[in-house]
Amino acid sequence: MPFTTAAVLAAAALVAIGILARTALTAWNGWLDLQRAQLARPAADGTSHALGMIDLSDIKERLRKLEAIAAGVDL
Question: 12, 36, 52, 67: which has the highest count of C-beta atoms within 10 A?
Answer without folding.
Answer: 52
